[in-house]
Amino acid sequence: MSLLVEEIMTLLARDSQGTINQRSRVSRYVDVGFKWLTGFFAIAVGLTLLAIALQVANQSWPAIREFGLSFLTSGTWNPVADQYGAWPAIYGTLVSSFLALLMALPIGVGVALFLSEDFLPSRIQQPLVFLIELLAAIPSVVYGLWGIFVLIPLLSKLGLWLHQNLGWVPFFSTPPRGPGMYVASVILAIMILPIIAAISRDALVAVPSELRQAAYGLGATRWETILKVILPSAFSGIVGGTMLGLGRALGETMAVTMVIGNANTVSPSIFSPATTIASLLANQFAEASGLQISSLMYTALILFGLTLIVNILAEVLVRTMRQRL
Amino acid sequence: MALHFNSARRAFLTSAIALTVGLAACQQTPPSGPQGAGSAPGSNAGGGQTIALSGAGASFPAPLYQRWFSEYNKQNPNVQISYQSVGSGAGVKQYLAQTVDFGASDAPLKDDERQGFPAQRGQAIQIPMTGGAVVFAYNLEGVDNLKLSREAYCGIVQGEIKTWNDPKIAAANSGVNLPNTPITFVHRSDGSGTTFIFTTHLEAACPNWTAGASKAVEWPAGFVGAKGNEGVTAQVLQTAGAIGYTEYSYAKENNLKAATLQNKAGEFVAPSPESAAKAFAGVAVPEDFALVIPDPAAKDAYPINGLTWLLLYSQYDNPTEADALKNMVKWALSEGDQYAQELGYVPLPDELANRVVATLDTIKVAAATPAQ
Q1: Number of C-alpha atoms within 13 angstroms, CB side, residue B33?
Q2: In this structure, what are the phi and psi dihedrals at residue A122, rounded to the nearest 5 degrees?
Q3: Torsion angle defined by CA atoms of residues B273, B278, B281 and B282, in that order, rounded to the nearest 10 degrees
Q4: How many CB atoms lie within 10 A of CB B36?
Q5: 3-state helix, strand, coil in chain A (%, to 5)
């Protein structure tokens, strides 16, 4: 858009090479016009979000009236009897995203650190950065297929070993049956890793070099500099990247649907099949009717709410960290 | 340099404008079906050139429909039929909203759906196009011809039989070495006509089946759900000891082993288009063709079969379109049979096909439409 505006400005400037007065008036109009234009776009984005939320809320109203808050805790999803509850889907969404974050966060920040320090000559560093960002460009259906044909055979062997040797731990209490929560979490972790790594790296690179030099100057070791100076000053950027990643994990549909097993059950075992809100929607929306559609919309509204809560928590976290610094 | 930069920028601008115009033009091109009550759909077809028809619905018969429409187009280049396999439910919705020229569904229209039928289009006409069997596809090394008694497969889908060497399975498979491994049951996680056909049979055949019959049901805990026929197929192929249901044509295409089932008469019958056709032979078909055979009684019939329907309007505004649609259906039910067999679907018995063709002739072109 800005290209267009610049184009207009150059054309106008060329046409009005006469007096200085004229030129500045035109450019003032352009300035004001540009301000209004950007303002309009900013507001339009907000309004779109609001319109979607209202539409979803409106369509979910029959289900809200029918089931109320018990929808959040009920575990039935029975289209034959028209009885619906979202607890297994909410549980699956939260647990799969949490597990994914548990795996992706340390790795992502580690990768970002490694690629922002001068451990590597930039000849090697740049291609590596590029490769990691490329991970984010893989379509999720490709991740899903890869999950089915590569990851599941690989992970179920490991899973079987865990179940046989550590079966007394509730997390490993059922034998892996191919797809399940564990596969979904690993896929999600791989999918959000590039987001966390790329944004964290940007934040780490943006830390002013004066801070680092000052730390060294005070006699800090590299460890101390990284842990006590660089990481804390890049904290808000890292949290931002993590939240973007978490947002993707909460809403990821295709890949998760393909590997999670789509069972409407709540089990402590990570090997048992589960479901998430997004995959429930992807599975049932096309053939749903009546109250089932409203219930699906209700779950979409819950996902909306979950994402909102996650973002608010992130904001709170960043603020309290800033105050402590 | 500055000038150079400028021209590059202008080139960008021009191409951006060209793109925008192109996109806008694109939006007008796709042939839209009749939109609302008073619209004059496809008036360009009056010239006798290309007739574009669009349909949407069930995914179960989609491979066959797509084959039919492309073959028909080869023979009648002026008729182009597009079919979106969006699922039966969405197909019925689009049909009732008149955004398509025909719908397709794996379940007959329900009463409340019929009530939503637009009055100005006359009546809803549902005609069966083809049938298909739903098979138990399994992955069990060393077992090539699994036989499942009613007791056995009911037990498996109810989650009561958990291992392959269960005596209820072993009883019908003497001499077969069944492993002591767990059974992983794979079902469709998306709403589907295949699930409707499958659960309709279970409801009739299994006394303890309580989940009902629908396009999506609540399955016992511990089962694995996979999206689409291809998802179930991949899952069964991947998991040793898995068993799931897919339509026959799909299992055939992917070389999945399909179990021989015990039918109502107590006979063990292997799935095939022939044994599925036996289920439809000599059955009294109701006036609206809403024929569901949950559990065929014939001795040599494969037990799990279903029909799939095309949904038409009894009144079309445009005579050319109505004729093209009628001719296509007639062709599909006669010459099109070979493609049905090739893909593993069950062609309609002649008697039934004749009745469908007779019904087609009741489709009228709105007589009193103003000149278009």
Answers
A1: 23
A2: -65, -20
A3: 180
A4: 11
A5: 80, 0, 20
Nearest C-alpha in A relative to B224: A261
Interface of B with A in 207-266 (CB under 8 A): 211-219, 221-227, 231, 234-235, 238-239, 242
Question: How far, rounded to the nearest angstrom, does the alpha carbon of residue A99 sit from its chain's CA centroid?
Answer: 13
Contacts of B89 in chain A (CB under 8 A): 286-289
Instruction: Please tell me if residue B86 touches chain A, with a CB cutoff of 8 Å.
Output: yes
Residue in A275, A258, A287 with CA at minimum distance from that of residue A77: A275
Query: Which of B252, B198, B192 has its CA nearest to residue B61?
Result: B192
**How many interface pairs between A and B have CB atoms less than 8 angstroms apart?**
114
Cα–Cα distance between B116 and B98 in angstroms, integer?
Answer: 11
The complex's ipTM? 0.78
Q: Which two tokens stand for residue B27?
A: 């939006």
CB B106 within 8 A of CB B77: no
The DSSP call for residue A273 is -
| Residue pLDDT tens, chain A, 325 long | 555 666 666 665 565 555 555 567 888 889 999 999 999 999 999 999 999 999 999 999 999 999 999 999 998 898 888 899 999 999 999 999 999 999 999 999 999 999 988 888 888 888 988 888 888 889 999 999 999 889 998 998 888 889 888 888 888 888 888 899 999 999 999 999 999 999 999 999 999 989 989 999 999 998 999 999 999 989 889 998 999 899 999 999 999 999 999 998 898 899 999 999 999 999 988 788 789 999 999 999 999 999 999 889 888 888 887 777 6
Give the list of residues 6+ apart from residue B3 with CB closer than 8 angstroms, or none: none
Q: How far is residue A86's CA from residue B209's CA, in Å, rounded to a whole number?
A: 24
* Residue B126 host element (H or E): strand B124-139
Instruction: Let me know: does A127 contact A154? Beta carbons within 8 Å.
Output: no
pTM over 0.90: no
Beta carbons of B159 and B145 less than 8 angstroms apart: no
Q: A7 and B9: CB-CB below 8 Å? A: yes
